[in-house]
Specification:
Blueprint lengths: L8 E6 L11 E6 L5 E6 L7 H11 L5 E5 L8 H22 L10 E5 L9 H14 L5 H7 L8 E6 L4 E7 L12 E6 L5 H13 L16 E6 L9 H21 L7 E9 L2 H12 L2 H8 L5 H8 L12 E4 L2 E5 L2 E2 L12 E7 L5 E8 L3 H8 L4
Helix pairs in contact: 1-2, 2-3, 5-6, 7-9
Length: 390
Amino acid sequence: MTVTTPRGFRAAGVAAGLKTSGANDVALVVNDGPDAGVAGVFTANRVKAAPVLWTQQVVHGGVVRAVVLNSGGANACTGPAGFQDTHATAEHTAATLTASSPRLMLGAGEVAVCSTGLIGERLPMTALLSGVRNAVRGLSRDGGRAAADAIMTTDTRPKTTVAAGSGWTVGGMAKGAGMLAPAMATMLCVLTTDAVAGPEILDAALRAATRVTFDRIDSDGCMSTNDTVLLLSSGASGIEPTEAELTAAVTAACHDLAQQLIADAEGATKQIAIDVVGAATEEDAVEAGRSVARNNLVKTALFGNDPNWGRILAAVGTTAAAFEPDGVDVAVNGVWVCRGGAAAEDRSKVDLTGRDVTIRIDLHAGDAAATVWTNDLSHAYVHENSAYST
C-alpha cells in the first residue's frame, strides 16, 4: 500500500536531524525504470518555495529518476540562497545515487525536490545532505512506509494508497494536515505507476484526477507555498493501459489520499462532504461548495453539533453562482432543514454526534453537481496553529 508497490520503485525514509523530535525527516523515492516519465501539478500561490520552482523546471523536462523530500523546513521565502540549496540537494542526490548504482547515471535535472515545514528559514544543509546519503544506502522495495513517515509535519499518521489496474498498479503517499486549500495541489504527494505511459498521458491523467479530488478538499482556506503532486511511471509492468484506464486508477488513488488528508486535518472532529446539486454549471457547484467549506461560522457551528442552516445559506449567497435565494434547499445529514430558502424540517432531528457530516445544497438552477470536502474548526486547530513555530 505504498509508492513501492508498483514495480520499478525503491524508497527510504531516515532521520537527519531536521526535526527536533528525532523522527524521520528525509525521504527518497527512486525510479529504476526502464521508463522515467513524470507529470506534476503545483501550488497556484504566487509565493512559491524554492523546491517548487526547481521541480517545475525538472518536470518540464519530462524525465524524473528520483524524488528527494524533507520535512522540518519548507525552504520557502529564502531567496536565491534557498534556490541554490535546492539545486545542491538535487546535485548531491544525483551524484550519490550514481555512485551507488552507476547504471542509473542520472543528473541533477532528473531529481525532483520537495520540502515541507516552517516558512522563512533556510535548511541545515549539512544535516540534509547527510540524510540523503543515508537514504540512498537505505533504499529498498520495502521502504515506502518509512518514506511516508518522513514527510509528515503536523500529520498524526502517514497516508499511503494503492489502486490496482489490470497487471499494473498505482501507488502513492501524501502528507498534509493544515494549509489544505486547492489550486493546486494541496500538500506533498508522490504517485507511482509501473504502467507504460509517456509524460503527455501522465499529465492528462494527473490533471483529470486532481481536479476532482485534491482540488476539491478545503480544510482551512489556506494555500501553501510548497504544494506539489508528482506522478512517476517506471513502465516495469510492460503494460500500456488506455488513457481512461490510467486516469481511473490515478483518480482512485488521489481520492483515497485526499480523504485521508481531510480525516487527519488539524484539530478536526468532523469530516464534512458538501454536495451541491442543481447548479447551472460545475463551476457554480464548486464555488458554492467551497464557500461553505471556508465559512468559519459554518465550521464552528458543526464543531458545536449545531445544524445552523442559516449560516450555510448565507455562505452560498456570497458567491456568483446562478440561483434564486428563495429557491434553495439545504439538508444536513439527510434532514431537509431548509426548503425554498426558509425553515423546513425541525433542525433538532439532525444527528451530528458522529464524525461524518453530509450537507446537501440544491440550487434548482440546472443539472450540474460537485462535492467539496472539508472539516470543522475546533479549539485544537487554533492551538495547533498558534503554537506551530515554537
